[in-house]
Write a structure and sequence with these properties.
CATH superfamily of the largest domain: Response regulator
Largest sheet: 5 strands, parallel
Shape: elongated
Oligomer: single chain
Strand content: 5-15%
Order of helices and strands: EHEHEHEHEHHH
Strand order of the largest sheet: 2-1-3-4-5
Number of helices: 7
Number of domains: 2
CATH architecture of the largest domain: 3-Layer(aba) Sandwich
CATH topology of the largest domain: Rossmann fold
C-alpha cells in the first residue's frame, strides 16, 4: 500500500515516515514541497493519504474535498487539538479517519487500515446506491412503455411486457433500451 504523507512539520513527518517504512507492506512517499495535495495524488497515485495539520486549515480541507469528491483516495487526518466543529467539517469534506494527534506513530497503522476499510465501504455503498437508482429509472421507463403499449395496442400488462421482452430478444438488446426507443418514437 502506497501512503502519501502530507505534513508541514518535517521532524514529525520524518518520525512517522520511519515508523511506517518499517512495515514492508507500506511504501511511504512524502508530499513534495510546493506541490498541491491534489497534484501529488495525481502524480504519485497513493492508496491512502495521511494529512497532518498542526492547526485546522480550510485550504487543505478544500483539497481533501476535491480528492474525496472524485472518489480518489481515503484520507486519514491528524490534528493537534480536538475541535468538534472542524471534525464535522473535515468528515463532511470526505475525511475517512479523523484523529487527534496524541497517538504515537506505531499506533497509526491500524488507523490507516480502518480508514481504507471505511473508504471502501463508503465507495461500495455509493456504487450500490447508484446501481439501485439506475434500476429504478429503468423500471420506470419500462413501466411507461408498457402503459403506452397497453393504450396503443390494447394489451394487458403481462402481454405488454412480453412484447417488450420479445423485441429485446429478437434485437439482442436490453428491455430498457427497447422501452426507451419505443418512448422516443411517441410524439410529445
Amino acid at each position: 500500500m502506497r501512503v502519501l504523507l502530507a505534513d508541514d512539520d518535517a521532524a514529525r513527518a520524518g518520525a512517522l515516515a520511519r515508523v511506517l517504512a518499517a512495515d514492508p507492506a507500506l511504501e511511504v512517499v512524502r508530499l513534495p514541497a510546493g506541490l498541491a495535495l491534489t497534484e501529488a495524488v495525481a502524480q504519485l497515485a497513493p492508496d491512502i493519504l495521511i494529512v497532518d495539520m498542526a492547526r485546522p486549515d480550510r485550504d487543505a480541507l478544500d483539497s481533501i474535498r476535491r480528492i474525496a469528491a472524485a472518489g480518489l483516495r481515503p484520507v486519514a487526518l491528524f490534528v493537534d487539538q480536538d475541535d468538534p466543529a472542524f471534525m464535522e467539517e473535515a468528515i463532511g469534506a470526505g475525511v475517512s479517519s479523523y484523529n487527534v494527534l496524541d497517538v504515537k506513530p506505531p499506533d497509526v497503522k491500524p488507523i490507516l487500515r480502518a480508514a481504507v476499510a471505511l473508504f471502501r465501504r463508503h465507495q461500495a455503498s455509493e456504487a450500490a446506491k447508484a446501481s439501485a437508482e439506475a434500476r429504478l429509472a429503468e423500471r420506470a421507463v419500462i413501466d411507461r412503455a408498457k402503459a403506452l403499449l397497453m393504450k396503443r395496442r390494447r394489451l394487458s400488462e403481462p402481454d405488454a411486457y412480453r412484447w417488450l421482452r420479445r423485441q429485446a430478444m429478437d434485437r439482442g438488446r436490453r428491455i430498457a433500451d427497447i422501452a426507451e426507443s419505443l418512448l422516443a418514437e411517441e410524439p410529445p
